Amino acid sequence: MSMPAENIVPLTTDVGRLDQLKVKILTARERIENDEGAWVEGTLELAALMLEASNLCKTQFKYWLKRVGLTHWCEPDLHGLMWIARKPDIGREVLTEAPYRSYQRIWKEYKHRFRGQSKSVLAPVTRNRTRAMHHRQMKLGKEVIESLKGTSLESVAELDQLIMLNRGAPRGELLPNVKKLIEEAKAGNHVSAVSESNRLNVTGKIKHLPKLQDFWRKHATAVWQRASSEERIQFVEYLTELVTRPK
Fold first, then answer.
1. Same domain, yes or no, for 78 and 17?
2. Judgement on whether residues 18 and 98 belong to the same structural domain of the protein
3. Pair 74, 169 in one domain
4. pLDDT digits (tens, 9 = 90+) for 188-246
5. What 3 state SS string does the chain have?
6. Same domain, 82 and 179
């Protein structure tokens, strides 16, 4: 049931900023959905935008979300995003470690990390980490993971991107591009599955980047229209600097 007009208190005096936040939130959501490699940083950006909007709206945050059509997240999702925004360093670690992409499930499984560890929660942390490592061993093979210790691919983020790059391979086998990365890493070369994943799409084919003007029309027009004159001038000056900067 909608709130009676006479009971509605203005959300904030900075309505323009809320309009900007709405556009940025939608852009961040689209980035997370369309770019496999943007999960961690895209979520951190989304969480920070949500927190800023919540601070502006105060008690009417959920009402604002509903009013402007930002109804993509349930209450447990929002709760998790708020904690990620308040503690981004822990949020980055948790988003990288978690073997699933559900904000409410991440919050349920890792909330002790945000609240501060105690002896009573050390066991669940161990179980969660063990479960995640078992998942990686199942996907890549225990021997492969052991062989990558001390290489540029030993981190959790790199291992998870190797799994993503290897999707579609028969069980127990590695795709040629994944095998090449592993061999180069073992040879002492600095390679990155994260960088390779950003360059490739989920099917392993090289992405065809859109033309700059097409990308601008699709993703930035709304933000430009809502920007102040000062913001537009600063942005144009930034672009001018990029164009004239020596290569």
1. yes
2. yes
3. no
4. 888 888 777 766 654 444 444 567 777 777 777 777 888 888 888 888 887 887 777 66
5. CCCCHHHCCCCCCCHHHHHHHHHHHHHHHHHHHHCHHHHHHHHHHHHHHHHHHHHHHHHHHHHHHHHCCCCCCCHHHHHHHHHHHHCHHHHHHHHHHCCCCCHHHHHHHHHHHHHCCCHHHHHHHHHHHHHHHHHHHHHHCHHHHHHCCCCCCCCHHHHHHHHHHCCCCCCCCCCHHHHHHHHHHHCCCCCCHHHHHHHECCCCCECCCCCHHHHHHHHCHHHHHHCCHHHHHHHHHHHHHHHHCCC
6. no
Is 152 buried (19+), middle (13-18) or exposed (0-12) by CB count in 10 A? Answer: middle
Q: Are residues 148 and 201 in the same domain?
A: yes
Q: 26 with 108, same domain?
A: yes
Instruction: List the beta bridge partners of residue 206.
Output: 200
Containing domain of residue 193, as a range?
127-206
Residues 67 and 85 both lie in one domain: yes
Q: How many domains does the chain have?
A: 3
Among 115, 145, 169, the domain boundary falls at 115
End-to-end CA distance of the chain: 59
User: How would residue 8 be classed by pLDDT, with cut points 50, 70 and 90?
Assistant: very low
Q: Which tokens is 115 given?
A: 């609240």
What pLDDT shows up at residue 166? 84
What would the pLDDT profile of 96-144 be if each residue is shown by its tens digit? 888 878 888 888 888 888 877 543 444 444 445 567 777 788 888 889 8
Residues 63 and 75 in one domain: yes
**What CA–CA distance (Å, rounded) separates 84 from 44?**
7
